[in-house]
Amino acid sequence: MSVVHHLPPGWLLDHLSFINKVNYQLHRHQEPSCSKKKPTSSVYLDSRQMEAMSPFGAPAVGFAPDSTPVPGNEDGGGCEMITQKYVFRPELFNVTKPHITSAVHKECQQSNSHENLVSGNKQEVSVSIGKIRELILDGSSQLIQEGLKSGFLYPLVEKQDGNSGRIALPLDACNLSELCEMAKQWPASNEMELQTLRLPEDDMSVTELDLSSQVIENGSSFSKMITLMGQKYLLPPRSSFLLSDISCMQPLLNCGKTFDVIVIDPPWENKSVKRSNRYSCLSPQQIKQMPVPKLAAADCLIVTWVTNRQKHLCFVKEELYPSWSVEVVAEWYWVKITHSGEFVFPLDSPHKKPYECLVLGRVREKAALAFRNTDTEVPPVPDQKLIVSVPCILHSHKPPLAEVLKDYIKPGGQCLELFARNLQPGWMSWGNEVLKFQHVDYFIALESGR
């Protein structure tokens, strides 16, 4: 469970625990006993095979390589099953001190005393921020105190010699967004040919895949590792994904599913992001054109991450959701803290805030149909809840929402994340960086077991 404490104000989450309880285990046969008579249990799609397949480099209908487990060899030796377990690098959650100290913050306040935080009516914004500040200050205090009592959070120890240095982050040499751009140059294919590619159910641990604009599904109960353009990525059990950009979402529509919860983390236009050229942004109108209504099931819960710009919040509530026939039902806040319970940024900082907003809504156009088709009633989504957690130091690595949302969707509901950068068991994920945080370099391989 990623939920450490659940109190009236909201939830205290353990993001790292959520990742590691996914149980990233790979099963493979031990070499060299197997390799003497049979090739290793991996699949490599070479250029000749690719020519016989769809233009996107994957079979049009199915995928069933010959990878039957080998019981033994001619010398009487058997193939021993090896289990390799991976855990997420814990130092990527090593947030022991605020990103901005109080002294630096006071200087910023003095030099920017006349600068407005957001566009729009200054008085209305001030009132709104005051209410949010009170909500976050009171609510997070209760959750943090409970975390300190239980030992999940701990007071800052002055001696931090071993953790004071900079952490070397893994370099993902495979630029996923560029691969999506490359796919656009290939010949167009019949949309109906783009079916879901289901990875084999056997003990195959490594699959070599070239770029494929189709849904990839790991339906097995253990993880798999795929190789994409020479880079290795871990796929959690029972997960699916589509690696593409907004211009190539048709395979997601063709998979024949609608979803009971859709989490959206749009790449909002932002001056600092434009300057850093970190990733491509989308305009509000481009986001508005996304086929969310076609993907949403009856009474679908829509959850959208919104940056701390009043302009974006107003757009979601007053324009985006109405265009999708979605009724706003709640606003939640993700509050980012250190391991000692301090906000990562001062709460009244004029620039960086220690929280982000989530706007939750229901697809009301289909609500009547939903109630006719099921006897299961889900409770209404509560408003003004907090999700408090120590953030990952990786940019835009959002906390998991699966456990905090499960009470507000029907049992067994289908889940989808748009603009995802990682995968979750039981979820479909889409985006042009959908495998980013699944890169094997973000994980540590533990000692193999038998």
UniProtKB/TrEMBL annotation:
A GO term, aspect molecular function: nucleic acid binding
GO cellular component: cytosol; nucleus
Biological process (GO), any one: methylation
Listed InterPro entries: DNA_methylase_N6_adenine_CS (IPR002052), MT-A70-like (IPR007757)
Record-linked Pfam families: MT-A70
UniProt record similarity statement: Belongs to the MT-A70-like family.
The protein's name: Methyltransferase-like protein 4
Gene that encodes the chain: Mettl4
